[in-house]
Each structure stands twice: as C-alpha cells, then as structure tokens.
C-alpha cells in the first residue's frame, strides 16, 4: 500500500520542483499587489468611463475560473503573436486573477479611512500623490494586512493549476513520476503534505498578526 | 486701510438644490481676528470651508492676497476655473483646525507636525524638526513628541492639530468649532492656546464658535450668520451688547438662556 | 463554426455536468460545513480536535491535489469511483472545511444575551440552537456563503483535469478538433461569466431580503 523506500526515493525530485511553485507564487503575488492597486485607483477615478470600464473588467475576471483564464492566456495569446512560456503565462494568470480580489481588499481599507483625513490633507496642501502615499495608504493598508496575507496563502495553494498549462511545478512532477512508475499514492501524498507543511504554519502566523491588528485598530 | 487679505465677492453655494450661501460679500484684513457665530445650518461652516477649498464654490469669487482662489484669469482677463496648481498655490496661504482634530493616527505627535513642512513645503528635515519642536513647545506638548495620537486626551489632540496647522505659517487660520468635540474640562487649555496665537501673531483668524465669551475676548469683529447670509457684522461690543437685527437678538437670548440653565 | 454555434455546442455538451457538479458539491459542502461548524463548538475536546484536523488538512492542501488524490490514489486502496463522484467529494470536502469556519464564526457572533435569554426561557440546547441561535447566525453567514458558492462554481472547472466532461473539458475537446482557439476560449469565459454574474447578484439580493428590517 505505502512504500517508504519509494516515498524517500521520489521525495527529492518533488521537493526540488517546489522552487517553481514558490517562485510562481511570489512573482504572481507581487503582480497581484501592484495591479490590484491600479484597479482600485482606476475604479475611484472621477472619469466615469475609466471607472466603469475598470470595474467591468474586474467583475469579469472575478466571475470566471482561473483555470479557463490560464488556458486563455496560454492558448489564445499566441493566436495574436504573443507566445508565452508556461511560467510567464501562469504568473500573469495568477497575478491578474488575484489582483481583482486584492483590489476589493484595498477598497475596503481605503474606505475605512475617514473623510477627515482627506480634508486635512487638502488643508495642509498635500498634492494628490502625496495624499495617497503619505496619508491614506499608510492608514488603509495595515488593517487589511491579514486579509492580504490570506490571499498569498490562497494563491500558493492555487499554483497546481499551472500544471494544466504544462508548467512542471510540484503537482506536475508528482504526476510525471506517477505516470512512469504507475504508483501515484506516494508522490501525490507527498505533494499534499508539502502544501500542508508550508501553508499551515503560515496561516497560524497570520492569525497571530490578525489578533495584533484587531487589537491596534 | 490696507488691502484685505481675503475678499469674498457675491459668493453663493448650493448643495444640489439647497442654497446654503446667498451672495455673500466679506473682507478680512491682515492680522484681523474674525469670529463667525450663528445657528447651525446658517452657512458659517460652509463659508469657511469654501476658503479652505473643501467645498466647491457655486458662484462668485474669493480672493486671497489679490489672487483668485477658485479661478484663474486667461489671456483676455476672463475668469476660468482654477487649475490644480493654481489652487494649491493660493491655498498655501490658508490653514485650518478641525472640530475633530483629524490627526494622522499612524504618525507620532512630532511626525504629525513635521509631515507637511517636509512633504508639502519640501523643507529640510532637520530644520523642519526644529520648528515642529518649537511649535509643540508653544502649545505645551513637547514632552509628548514621541507618543501616538491615540494616547492623547482630546484637548491635547487639538493642541497638536493647532501646532500642525501653525507650523505651515498660514496667513489665515480657520478654526472650525475647535472646542465643541471636547469634554468641558478640556476646553480651557485649547482656548488658552488659541488666545496666545491671537495675541502674538500677525496671522488672520477666522473662528467659528459657540463660545460667546471667548469670541468677545479674541475677536476684533464678529459676524452673525443666518439663512446663508451675514445679517450683522461689527465689533464684539456692538454685536453682543447692542444687537440690531431681531434674529440676532433672538439667537443671543436663546444662547444666554441655555448657558445659564442648570446642566 | 460561428461563435454562436460554438457557444451552443459547448453548452449542449458541458453545461449539465458543470451545474450538476456545482449543485451536488454545494449541498455536500453546506451539510459538512454545518456539521463541522457545530462540532467545532462542542464542549468535547476530542470532537473539536477531529474537526480541526479535517479543516486544516483540507484548507492547507490544494483543491487540485485533493481532487487528484481522491481520483488517482483512493482506487489503490480499493475505493474506485466515477469522475463525478470524485469531483463532488473533493469539492464538497474542500469547501465544507471553509464553510465550517463560516458557520462557527457566524454562530459565535450571535450576542451572548440570546443564549442567556433562551436559558432563562428554559429552552433545551437543541431548541436554543435551532430556534434562536442558528436563524440569527445564518443571516450573518449569508455574505460569506454567497461568496463561497461563486468560488465553488468557478472551481468546478478543475474537474476537467480528471476527465469529467464539464464545460472546460468540452472546450478542450472542441479546441483539439476545430482549432478555433480564440473563439472557443472566449465563448467559455463568457459562459462562465453569464452564469456566475447573476449568481453574485442573486446572492446580494437574497442577503438584502433576509436582512431587511432585521439588522
């Protein structure tokens, strides 16, 4: 049923694919953080057209599956001459998909900053950029940090989807091993355990952060 | 008389269909201290917020030191809405202290006072720190420089807010009911600080208040607002002890009654 | 095929499976979520521990890994099942873990006074939960439950990877046979959106209706 020797034999191969999974998560997350903020600012724009278009795009991305978006980026973009490596396509898909969630998080953070802070920024003659960078965002971001952290963990757990566009991350590595030896039990279980080992401590740490944040705000 | 530092010309303000200011003309002289009184909803707060550019003007013009605040002149001398740059340039003459302080909760007291000189005026950090500390000393809170606003009492918060506005060296400083969010026992310390500023500075002051005694003490002139208009305007002695307009009499009477009624 | 024909063809072949998977998995998740959530509040430490393990394992590993594990590994232990069963089981178990947390925090958010009042009125524990606490907690859970339903619906696209013939699977088949890649995947995105968007709106409306005059 379960062969320890076999498990230890395949473990190094699977673990070495972990860096693909982790780097996809990190790059995708940075992309999501930046693009998410851009959505938020565009949606807040005074220009009705810009605001509505951005809002529409965000709603569309949020209401369609990540897997299908990955297929779209990987298979449709080349039709227009834009062929992407699986890693690049995967990271763009992940980043874009989660940017729409982060945009919502930023929005709620920004709305939690009272109107008085905007007024005092005007009274002290801050320009728009400085108002955001010095006054609004430093207050809007800390309370939502735990939620942002949660999305980081969620993204990490979504990276196996990138195997569907042929990225050889840990799940695909396990699948490949399974296909060549006809033993799926050990490789797939190892993948599950690795995810648990990484994401559980992270979510425990986040819960601590959340307690700290609720105490402060 | 010298050129006024602020001049309202036929200023009108609507919120949607509701008219809150009705063609007001008004002047403030350099160094003059003006108190605005009147029932709530009379337009006095909107009047001041237009000067701080927190509300948009509907009609008329406001001049600060001879420059239009809400407008710019084009090549033909016609008025057009002010650009952001122009608005910021003229606005730099005005400062404001809010009813609810609006300190930056993510910065220490010292950082609160230093922030705008460094970020907005581009002043040298060391030098800004020095003047921020001087200003905190002036309001008696230098020992609180490194604490966060959440740890201060309401009176202390408001004194920091005053230091923060003052360090920008505005020519006109607006106080919007600076003590009405405070517990009664904390009002005195804030009024003392405002009194000091009024006594030593060349700063013009626009004070919206319900503290009649304080208005009398500080102001060179009191303007009474009612229904979006300035009904009466003159030295404190005239306004408070020899009111002409029936509405002003009524307002003062009701005010005296509430003041003397037992809590 | 024209764009319209593609949509009709996709819908005709994959829609039923996608919706069936969604409905069955959602029911399983809701049942597991309520049972798990209530057990998490049990006075018995052991029961709480068991549920905690379930929740952390299913939240801590990836849905796709769970799907593969159930479909490829369980048969090694003699548990052979159809792709549909595996899909419903994986998605239901995964979302059930999240739902149990929603249920738990919903129940905990009901004011302590409600419990005290029901004790004062001599309700039994079960009566108290059924008649007083859960009806109030449910309203507070609704926004989260609604969000999860949308996420669950979107996640059904993963079942294509264990050869269940849902919308996404059919799109891949169609892509291989017709090579109209752009139109097919555009159509697929549009179909998912056209289903998910009214669902989002519908949940918001339900939320408003349920909270009207009560909160």
UniProtKB/TrEMBL annotation, chain A:
Keywords: Amino-acid transport, Cell membrane, Membrane, Transmembrane, Transmembrane helix, Transport. Residues 18-206 form the ABC transmembrane type-1 domain. InterPro entries: AA_ABC_transptr_permease_3TM, ArtM/GltK/GlnP/TcyL/YhdX-like, Ectoine_EhuD, MetI-like, MetI-like_sf. It is a multi-pass membrane protein. One of its GO terms (cellular component) is ATP-binding cassette (ABC) transporter complex. It comes from the Bacteria. PROSITE patterns: ABC_TM1. The chain crosses the membrane at residues 16-39, 188-206. It is found in: Cell membrane. One of its GO terms (biological process) is amino acid transport. Pfam families: BPD_transp_1 (PF00528). GO terms for molecular function: transmembrane transporter activity. Its main location: membrane. Belongs to the binding-protein-dependent transport system permease family. This is Amino acid ABC transporter membrane protein 2, PAAT family (TC 3.A.1.3.-). It comes from Alkalibacterium thalassium.
UniProtKB/TrEMBL annotation, chain B:
SUPFAM superfamilies: P-loop containing nucleoside triphosphate hydrolases. Transmembrane segments: none annotated. Signal peptide: none annotated. It is found in: Cell membrane. This is Amino acid ABC transporter ATP-binding protein, PAAT family (TC 3.A.1.3.-). GO terms for cellular component: plasma membrane. It comes from Alkalibacterium thalassium. Its main location: membrane. Keywords: Amino-acid transport, ATP-binding, Cell membrane, Membrane, Nucleotide-binding, Transport. PROSITE patterns: ABC_TRANSPORTER_1, ABC_TRANSPORTER_2. Pfam families: ABC_tran. InterPro entries: AAA+_ATPase, ABC_ATPase_HisP-typ, ABC_transporter-like_ATP-bd, ABC_transporter-like_CS, Ectoine_EhuA, MetN_ABC_transporter-like, P-loop_NTPase. It comes from the Bacteria. GO terms for molecular function: ABC-type amino acid transporter activity; ATP binding; ATP hydrolysis activity. SMART domains: AAA.
Automatic annotation (TrEMBL), chain C:
Its main location: membrane. InterPro entries: AA_ABC_transptr_permease_3TM, ArtM/GltK/GlnP/TcyL/YhdX-like, Ectoine_EhuC, MetI-like, MetI-like_sf. The lineage of its organism: Bacteria, Bacillati, Bacillota, Bacilli, Lactobacillales. The chain crosses the membrane at residues 6-34, 46-71, 77-98, 132-150, 182-200. Residues 15-196 form the ABC transmembrane type-1 domain. NCBIfam families: ectoine_ehuC, HEQRo_perm_3TM. This is Amino acid ABC transporter membrane protein 1, PAAT family. GO terms for cellular component: ATP-binding cassette (ABC) transporter complex. It is found in: Cell membrane. Pfam families: BPD_transp_1. It is a multi-pass membrane protein. It comes from the Bacteria. One of its GO terms (biological process) is amino acid transport. PROSITE patterns: ABC_TM1. Keywords: Amino-acid transport, Cell membrane, Membrane, Transmembrane, Transmembrane helix, Transport. GO terms for molecular function: transmembrane transporter activity. Belongs to the binding-protein-dependent transport system permease family.
